[in-house]
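Pilot study result, target chain (868 residues):
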Amino acid sequence: MAAFVGFAASGPRDLPVLIEDPRRFADLFGDDLELAWDGRRGEVVTSRLGAAVRDFFRNGGQRCWVVRVTGAQAATNQFVVPGLIDMNNPTGPGITLQARSPGSWSDRVVVGASLEATALRPDPAHAPGTASWLAAIAASTPRLALVVDAASGVSAGDLVRVTVSHWPGATSSWEAWLFVDRIEEARSAARGSRRIEIVGATPARWLTRIATASGDAPATYTPSVAPAALPPGAVVRIDRIEMELRVRIEGEERFRLNGLGFHRAHPRWWEALPRDLDLLQQDDPWPFEHHATFRRELLAPRFPLASSRTCDVGATDTAALPLAMGPWPTYGAPLELAAPALARDGLARFDAGVFVDQGLADLLPHQVALEAEHVLRAHDRSQGAPFQGVHAVWAVDEVTLIAAPDAAHRGWEAASAPDDLALGFDVAAPSEPPVVARCGCDDSRLPTLPRCPPEEAPAGAFGPSERGPAAPGNFTVEPREAPPEGPVALPVGARAFTLRWTHTDGATYVVRESTTLERGNGEIRLHDPSVLYEGPGAGGDATAHVRALPVFGRSPGLWHYQVRAVVDGVAGRWSSIVSVRVTTPERALLSDVDDGGDALARVQRVLLRMCAARGDLLAVLSLSERFREAEAIEHAARLRSYDDPADRAGLPPEALSYGMLVHPWPVVPEPTHRGNARRAPPDGAASGVLASRAIRRGAWISPANEALADVVALSPALSPSRWEALLDARVNVLRQEARGFVALGADTLSDDPDLVSVTARRLLCFLRRVALQKGAEYVFEPHDDFFRREVIGSFERLFSDLFRAGAFAGRSPETAYQVRADTALNPPSAVNQGRFVIELKVAPSIPLSFITVRLTQRGDVTAVAEVR
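Predicted structure:
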């Protein structure tokens, strides 16, 4: 089992997440994150975590753990839920949801909300509108009698709305909103239905609703009290109210979540939408068990939104009512965040510190083990992950391999986008500009678009165009200043804008969009347009007869729009074309200053100390792609030295056998990647080969000479004349052979001849795990001769199986392994102290000498140590 630590677009920070296929990784952690522009190569540098995971599965790996690391500055986007009103602050900024995890990945997300109303039938035995009926609803514990069936049931946590309206001369209506606390069965009803009485959790909230004159603008509400009596002719309607959330990404609807409730007792409470950090823990800390099914539903595919609510049982519910929500969704983009995207990803600059836990990074291996166990015992799981960076894997017992593919990055620095990137325009220019609007940018250098003559509506279903309404006037884009010549250029990185046009009474509208224009019969038209919107027109200023349509999440490029009105089924002419330039966000630039591998050496030395402290982990290490033979040999020497200028702690020689160094980088075809091929560090592929060999044949089988899957080239190309020097420096060189690309060796960084082979270290890691597992079984056993014989027999049976599988050297079991637990190791004084020691001596299949593993059991503490 491997673990990979690195950069990702989304996902929880510093929390190990189990991944069993590449699609699951993409669902949780997103696409490869764009980090910086490499001016030398003319390409975008992306995160390498995703490539490592894909290479791992491509080379035979079956399960891995993934840890996303970011800087402390990583920010989470917030989204106002359209139409959901905070009754404690109805004029405030609104009620928000947040992205499921930090990062700029959710900049492309827009959130829509709509009302789901299910009509409920009042009990005719309690006639609506009577004084007793009103008094029951107005009581401090409101009651409401209903007749329900399977399709219109009511349960605890539901929100019920009672509406009183449509009496003669009415200019407003009353609404009573109440949450169901419990259901009381009444007398029997007709077959297939039942009579119930719902009991409210709190007093009903009475409001007066005043509709606008135009009828399609949002109504206004004022607090009210229950009426003493209903006006003659009033109509009473009772509805169960729920909410539907929709999520669009890049203009395409990806998610829809319906049946959401507004009270914690509801099984699909909207505030139970989980963050990644909570949902992906092995034990979800959410305190309300009746939401467990709902939260699991959001796991695959992973719903992109979450509540800001904590797991505090005593926290009060948000006083939210969907007063401004209609039956069709309205959408909203993320609230404005001033920081650049990369800063909100927590990666404004490359910092090796994000890969390590600062409390453990500068400790020696034995100190790491003591401190880590102390932190785990004292950690409150509700506070998130106990460790950061590579140390987050400490508590994942099944991990045996670990890699940090993003540690090999060069640094980057922020840079403003060039003017032509923000304002450039590549459509053939021509004569007369359309009516468009300025967007706070200098458009004086932009080419212009020809005016598009209004397009006639086709004859047929809508009738001839001359019978249709006029084309909507003043079709513009906001933000705006004055009509310029050329397309509207949005501010760099902005992806949201608003289309506005003049409203015609009684009209509905069709808005269409396209990314290209075409010329035909002397006219400029939209090429292959798609319908963006059909309806009465959203928002706008009803008194000024203006309609508005917000547009969100458009990718960089040119977008062209037209609108036309439809009155009584007759379509009018298309408006003039509005063109909008959505620009590329600012990019960081890869630094030209080389740190000489200091950051990489720091992370890898810390990783080796952690692996040695755990005793059962092997670090698969990679180098920077720019390292050629001399730099690779020098870097290996830095790792093998006790002291290093980039590291504040020493690296003991015994820790070197817990790491293997692989170079150069494989090149793998990936059609989703720019250029259809990508280069990535070899640690993902090497880990996949190691995991596959261990599954098929055992951890003691060498992974050398195993062909890597789908590799077509190596970068950089290393000279064969230097291969021997690289191998002497403990660099496992990848090379091309007739059967594919293979590793020349499988060596650790150690100088100890018994531990140079990766297979020897992997075998000892395996034995350590077995010893710890068996030691836990012996805690409560009485220490006598029978117990010692049982323990010896258990290990001898295991070693016999391993010997037959080829794990040990020697022609006979006696020369391959030894198991001791005699009185010399367990004198009476030690037995009286509750201590038990067993010594395991094994001869791995390559070394010729015995390596001793000593298991010591004292009380409920088991310790395993290698004795040389």
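One observation from the pilot: The chain is about 20% helix and 30% strand. A full batch analysis is planned for the follow-on phase.
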